[in-house]
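Q: I'm building a small set of examples for a reading group on sequence design. Run inverse folding on the following structure and report the sequence directly after it, with nothing in between.
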């Protein structure tokens, strides 16, 4: 049955690697009419425009006049300016993560959206991963969390450091577990390929007593997206790439003098498209006028903690001679891309 709702007119600003997927998912949504796209790369914009039969705008300001909402998938350094202009123009926005590159700008955007009564959602994609959704109800009392988010460097990472580029995904997820305040941070970072931090580790202690150990790298030869959560009665391993969840659960001893046993289980998961789900939640928020999962207020907290980690990291920054980058890559390959 076709939707009887008035379609939301959407425009996509930035149609590179991520933006092209945004156009695809919005085009597939029954309650959305994709009006057009805007990108500084006119050839790429024309390609996407022709592929999805939408208009091509040479300037995003012109696009703003034609839509109800926009999706911003431009380089991170441009997010604040475009988002602010869109909100001032009365548009709801979905902006790729990170929302901004500093806390002050993030707070300004969210305050402006509230004042203008506009929806602002941020693309923290892993919140919508089928594996995490399936595992959430099992995460009752995390005591230790370990995350690994590793991959090779690509030019689209520039000019952001690995904390705001990759680690922020896991920071956002861990904050969503409601573990209390962060009472201590120990972190270290290394610039290897760029002038920014390319590999980082942060150890966070929460007021609940939980410890989270996060590692993010964009100088790895293999791509890894995993989260492990240890609890009093067991352990959960979430693989975001394969959308798999493996559980190890302690089973009480069956008699006096016997030890507890461990039961292994793989959750049955109906795999789904995380971006499609994220965009669906944004559309629902625009229709209902109620912010949903991944809203700007939640994203602020991820930026707040990311900023604290980066500030502390800058005080203990390990400098690496650029000439050592190739040697680092060789060792990384030798050890299976785990660095």
């Amino acid at each position: 049955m076709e939707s009887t709702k008035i379609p939301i007119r959407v425009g996509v600003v930035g149609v590179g690697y991520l933006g092209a997927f945004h156009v695809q998912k919005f085009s597939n949504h029954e309650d959305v009419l994709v009006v057009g796209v805007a990108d500084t790369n006119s050839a790429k914009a024309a390609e996407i425009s022709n592929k999805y039969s939408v208009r091509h705008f040479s300037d995003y300001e012109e696009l703003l006049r034609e839509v109800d909402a926009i999706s911003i998938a431009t380089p991170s350094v441009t997010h604040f300016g475009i988002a602010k202009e869109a909100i001032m123009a009365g548009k709801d926005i979905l902006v790729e993560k990170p929302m901004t590159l500093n806390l002050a700008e993030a707070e300004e955007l969210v305050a402006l959206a509230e004042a203008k009564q506009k929806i602002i959602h941020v693309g923290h994609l892993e919140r919508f991963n089928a594996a995490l959704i399936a595992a959430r109800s099992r995460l009752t009392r995390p005591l230790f969390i370990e995350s690994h988010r590793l991959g090779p460097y690509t030019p689209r990472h520039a000019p952001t450091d690995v904390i705001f580029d990759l680690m922020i995904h896991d920071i956002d997820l861990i904050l969503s577990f409601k573990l209390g305040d962060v009472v201590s941070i120990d972190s270290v970072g290394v610039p290897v390929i760029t002038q920014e931090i390319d590999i980082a580790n942060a150890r966070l202690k929460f007021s609940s007593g939980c410890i989270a150990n996060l590692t993010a790298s964009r100088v790895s030869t293999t791509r890894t997206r995993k989260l492990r959560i240890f609890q009093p009665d067991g352990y959960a391993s979430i693989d975001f790439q394969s959308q798999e969840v493996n559980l190890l659960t302690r089973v009480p001893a069956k008699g006096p003098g016997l030890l507890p046993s461990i039961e292994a289980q793989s959750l049955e998961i109906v795999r789904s498209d995380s971006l499609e789900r994220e965009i669906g939640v944004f559309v629902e928020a625009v229709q209902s006028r109620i912010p949903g999962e991944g809203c700007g207020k939640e994203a602020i907290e991820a930026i707040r903690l990311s900023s604290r980690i980066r500030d502390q990291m800058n005080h203990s920054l390990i400098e690496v001679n650029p000439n050592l980058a190739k040697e680092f890559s060789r060792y990384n390959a030798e050890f299976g891309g785990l660095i």
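Residues 152 and 219 are 5 Å apart (CA to CA).
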